[in-house]
Amino acid sequence: QVQRAYNFNAGPSALPLPVLQKAQEELVDFRGSGMSVMELSHRSALYEEVHNEAIRLLKELYKIPEGYHVLFLQGGASLQFSMVPMNFLQAGKSAGYVMTGAWSEKAFAEAKLIGEVFEAASTKQENYKRIPQFDELNYDKDISYLHITSNNTIFGTQWSQFPDTGDVPLIADMSSDILCKPVDVEKFALIYAGAQKNLGPSGVTVVILRPDMLERAAKNLPTMLRYDIHVKNNSLYNTPPTFGIYMLGEVLKWVKDQGGVEGIEQRNREKAALIYDAIDASNDFYRGHAEKDSRSLMNITFTLQSDELEKKFLSEAKKAGFVGLNGHRSVGGCRASTYNAVPVEACQALRDFMIQFQKENS
Ligand code: PMP
């Protein structure tokens, strides 16, 4: 019986134990090849099987509409902050960004280096404690795209529904909530996500792209920054992060075993409720940062009544075996990231710890 930490890291974060064990088992001799996946040629039939299986599974599990492309790129979600405007921010047009947190700000700042952008809405004045209502979104019909951050890792808010943007391509950074619940992928022209929260290890970036977007993608870009090149080459233009893609495929098989994304969502709701209920029942001992209808299923952010008490909470939690509960360095407080692979038991243990700590300190 391996001793696993109660891992609430914000990313990289917990991976499913069965996936780690299978990777361990297959490490030195992958499917009788006498090599690990890392040692296979990315042009070999055996690797291509791994690669295409991962793409196929993501399409199946996330119910990605026919024709959409799935890409495995590098450079993290952060490179997508640049690639999106480089490819799709057309000359003479602008792009709208919905500002819901620190990562929206980063995406906006990168796009600003490329072309004209504007804030289509922002909740910064309210310290990003909520997602804007649809009627707060302000943009013209002729913009190049509208960009949103579906889950705000640092502030702990999440879009529960997505707007219909008609002919305006909707682009989403789903780094911290991809595959946490079923999503109507059809609403999106492009979705991107770093893998290191819900999908696998860091080093792989998933892009889901609506086919018509390729026609409008810029062609006068460095080759590696062109979506059309990656599509044409099935993400094998150059050497992809093969081991990460293998791990991602194994995580997807695990998701399938959990009852697919629907099963995962049910578990995620159960997990988040355990901790939010502890916050809500605490008589303000714990204070949730997000407004209730903007609460994230993935990152639960809260503070205690004083810095001193918060320090004590974090230090005792650490002693009790909880990892990663410190809030992001930019905002402080506490944050429990309950990504797909975090087991229900870890959330139960945290809930129990929170209740006990409150008893002893109030
Ligand atoms: N967007 C969001 C919502 C994130 O949470 C993160 C990473 N925490 C990023 C973008 C940046 O991702 P990466 O480190 O893969 O560039």
Automatic annotation (TrEMBL):
Keywords of the record: Amino-acid biosynthesis, Aminotransferase, Cytoplasm, Pyridoxal phosphate, Serine biosynthesis, Transferase
EC number of the protein: 2.6.1.52
Top-level taxon of origin: Bacteria
Pathway, per record: Amino-acid biosynthesis; L-serine biosynthesis; L-serine from 3-phospho-D-glycerate: step 2/3
PTM annotation (N6-(pyridoxal phosphate)lysine): residues: K197
Residues bound to pyridoxal 5'-phosphate: A77, S78, W103, T153, D173, Q196, N238, T239
Annotated localization: Cytoplasm
Positions of L-glutamate binding: R43
Catalytic activity from the UniProt record: O-phospho-L-serine + 2-oxoglutarate = 3-phosphooxypyruvate + L-glutamate; 4-(phosphooxy)-L-threonine + 2-oxoglutarate = (R)-3-hydroxy-2-oxo-4-phosphooxybutanoate + L-glutamate
Cofactor binding remark: Binds 1 pyridoxal phosphate per subunit.
Limits of the Aminotransferase class V domain: 6-349
Keyword Transferase: yes
Subunit structure: Homodimer.
Name used for this protein in its record: Phosphoserine aminotransferase
Annotated source species: Effusibacillus consociatus
